[in-house]
Amino acid sequence: MKYSKSESKEAARELLRGIWTAMPYCWDEDDNFDDAANRSNMDHVIENIKVNGHYCSGNIAEFWSMPDNERMHAHEVMLDQARNRIPMIAGCHHQSVKQVVTLAKHAQEIGYDFVIILTPYVAARDDETVYQFYEYICSRVDIGIILFNVPQNCHPINASLAKRLSKLPNICGYKQADGSPASTHSIIDSVGKDIVISVADEAPWLTSITQLGLQWLVNYNPHLYQSKDWLPLKDYTDAALNGEINRATEIAKSIQPLRELHAKWIMGYWNSGRMPISEMKYWQELIGMKGGRTRPPVIEISDEKKQELKEDLKSTGLFNII
User: Fold this and answer.
1) Taking the model in full, what pTM does it have?
2) Does the residue 239 lie in any domain?
3) Percent above pLDDT 90 for the chain
């Protein structure tokens, strides 16, 4: 490991900063992890999109469809392709606390910088059970652990629970997927000085930098909103950090058409109960990345909808559509 267990929070403050992405995984024709396609996407986000870090095996990577040996193989491939160019997080989400530990130990042993872990999906409907889940894991691994708050699906990690969890030695980050500003502000007030927080949405990122003092964005927008020759997220982030707020604002405004497409094609489906992974993968294909099919129970985008998405993306004039 690059740091001791007691140094997890310090390591997080140093490494969890800037723009990080998370991508869907690609499957080959036999429905196995496609090493070549995923390596290609990894190179793209590092070399072309110039992300500051990457999170593997998230919700949009269909982690819940993968047996543990496939997830560990994916972590090995993605880490190998990163080649120490950027820091890396491994998603070790699992209902079984023992399997979480197995996945986290594997990530720790092969050289990941951090792991991120969702709360359990079953039998965890109060603060104490969630606390004991993380306490069990923390006592068995040394790697820094990022909490993942998804109140739409799991028991929420509220401000008081986050404060209690932050006292565990290797809890070092918090990914906020609750869109409520009040929830985010309460988390910042509670643990913002103790652990690194990311609001998992590009739309409020400029506000997060300039008004909330946050240093880290991690979600799937960075690679959907940028291309090799056009890096508005990076540019407005750099401008904001340099104190050029007017310039940052103008650049941030330029991608409003993409935010509107995101609201329609991604969040529109997600808020209605359908995971839009197929839409994300097709969006990737349209801008030159690898995409492909999804696994059940995720539903494939229809040919008719593909054409509509293609026309919508083309109409923005912001990408050279393939």
Assistant:
1) 0.97
2) yes
3) 93
